[in-house]
């Protein structure tokens, strides 16, 4: 049991690739999932929110990069053994103008406006609000690291507008799609690439760091200097530190982008001569306290982080290249999208000593864990996996690591493709093992998607599969909240 069962239509000798799920889903829905194989546990209560591009084409024109499609929120509201589904596009200026004209009106990470240099000069990429989401301080925000967040009404999914934290996020600030909860305080910490002023060689680049309290008020800011313009997508957070792994992925001269001569993606390069740097920022002072150089590498996503004495322990997905950018720039023809090596780093904040162990040799991405354990030692971590089974053009499974490094792997049937595995806690237990894993699975044979539920204690087989009436395009990231937020779900 993985998703929609239509065995009579399957040609298992040549299973479909992941490309079917790149088709647009222009329709917006709100309905109950009334077909269930298995049983939805009664101790799951809350909202599973996913964000990602709902469309990769506008009119007859494909976007120039997977990162550029307009953001579409998908909500699974779960309570009393029932599940409601709804999806809605974030009404950014990009979405509204391009929908009305059915043509590209904004540059993107890898998309240029048709018409050459004069159409693109001086224009920065539009904000599709398409990468992640968070519900914090009473606000539901759709996130994209190239701009400020967009607020969405969590009860209706109507777009409220760009959100600035009472003006604390300036027009020049960008706000990453990967903020992290600070478990001990309930604060939310995020960052964005920026500038701390001008120097002799031009802008002095930095990471702007933002700390927001549980009431939604920005209470602290800091800056971490960087020597070059790195690809900065995520960081790690422990009780004491914000931990930045400054990648060996460089973004190239921004001047050519401003002149309209190229997109940002065209300048992205993995520099094998650029050591990766690890910087620790003290969360109380918002000042850098330690920086370490290590082998060149690329880390796009992080799991949990915590302290053990002077050591900071960090889960991360490491690679020695960034070939993914080429695939993402030609997504309709990409042969495979994969991740990296699942590592657990140990950084000694006192001495600067650095070590790591490889938790899994299976290609891994999108780590997740029980957010109740954020910044604390935890028992379980989950990650998407790409398993070589003849049908691995996209993530086709996921695996679980416990605190001892023991791995359990679940591989989907050929022709089925998964997503970031997201942890949902049990309402009846504080134990991590008593929670659940939520996975959206695309059935390439039937061109439909399902919500599939696993027990965190044993991911060998799902306990429930709920097919949608349609496919869901491959999305990026999910978020769990312990409340049922949507009015339509509460009414049922």
Question: Key features?
Answer:
5 helices, globular, 42% strand, 34 strands, 6% helix, mainly beta, seven-stranded antiparallel sheet, 492 residues, Methylamine Dehydrogenase, Chain H, six-stranded antiparallel sheet
How would you describe this protein?
The chain has 492 residues and is mainly β. The protein is 6% helix and 42% strand. The strands form eight sheets. Strands 22-23-24-25-26-27-28 form a seven-stranded antiparallel sheet, with no helix packed on it. Strands 2, 29, 30, 31, 32 and 33 form a six-stranded antiparallel sheet that branches. A hairpin with a 6-residue loop joins β9 (139-143) and β10 (150-152). It is globular. The two termini are 27 Å apart.
- Can you summarize the main beta sheet? 7 strands, antiparallel
Instruction: Classify the helix fraction into a percent range.
Output: under 10%
Q: What is the CATH architecture assignment?
A: 7 Propeller
Q: Compute the CA-based radius of gyration.
A: 21 Å
Distance between the termini: 27 Å
The percent range for strand residues is 35-45%
Low-confidence segments, ≥5 residues, pLDDT <50?
A: 4-8
Shape: globular
Side-by-side strand order of the widest sheet: 22-23-24-25-26-27-28
Average pLDDT across residues?
Answer: 94
Which structural class should the secondary elements be placed in? mainly beta
Number of DSSP E strands: 34
Structurally, how many domains make up the residues? 1
CATH class: Mainly Beta
CATH fold group: Methylamine Dehydrogenase, Chain H
- Helices, by number, come to 5
